Amino acid sequence: MLDRLWRFYDAAYRWLHRLEDLPTERGTILRIGVARYRGRRVALRDGTVVRTGDVIGTLHFHNEAVAAIHDGKLDSVRSGILILRAYERSLKTLARLSEDHPRYRRMKALSATTIFHQGVEKLGFEIFPLPSWPAGWIVSAYERFLLARFHPLGRRRKSQKKFEARTIWASAKEIRRRYGDNSSPSGTRA
After folding, report:
1. Domain 2-179 part of CATH 1.10.3470
2. Domain segments of the chain: what residues?
3. CA distances from 98 to 10, 51, 94, 135, 172 (A)
4. Maximum distance among all alpha carbons in the chain?
5. b/e per residue, 29-49, with b = 16+ CB within 10 A?
6. What is the pLDDT of residues 102-144, one digit of tens each?
7. How far apart are CA 136 and CA 114, in angstroms?
8. 27 and 78 in contact (C-beta within 8 Å)?
9. Is this structure's pTM higher than 0.85?
């Protein structure tokens, strides 16, 4: 019953936010939505400024795909490396789509609200606090629930309570620079 309810909720959420899978040559790990930004002005290091009304991409983990990478393995280091590589492949796909695809070409920046923000600066993102504690608390609780549901260790994961939600941002220009066709072979530049 819980699985059926979860699948219904997940499908409704994807439909409501018009999320699409970001396919790569080895499957997908991210979903993306395109929306008009509603919120405070966000100034990024590369000079991009996101204002209310600007078109942004919203990134979401494909929970089942992430769970499949774990595939019952409890070696979190190996799983983390595989997830990072899949994330980078998705960003390469996104860089290409933001140049070629009409839906993504208008995006000024990419954003996600997540408890998984540790180390994202190396991928071209910047970390910002959430605008209010209730929003941070709700997102943190929801994502800890997802972690308990999809991670092989589930509720036994000891570090789970340490995770606090933040908003991560990257300009579309920065993603194209790092992951586009003219980027370095590793996908990231210093």
Report:
1. no
2. 2-179
3. 25, 19, 6, 29, 7
4. 49
5. bbbbebeebeeeebebeeebe
6. 889 999 999 998 876 778 899 999 999 877 666 665 665 666 6
7. 9
8. no
9. no
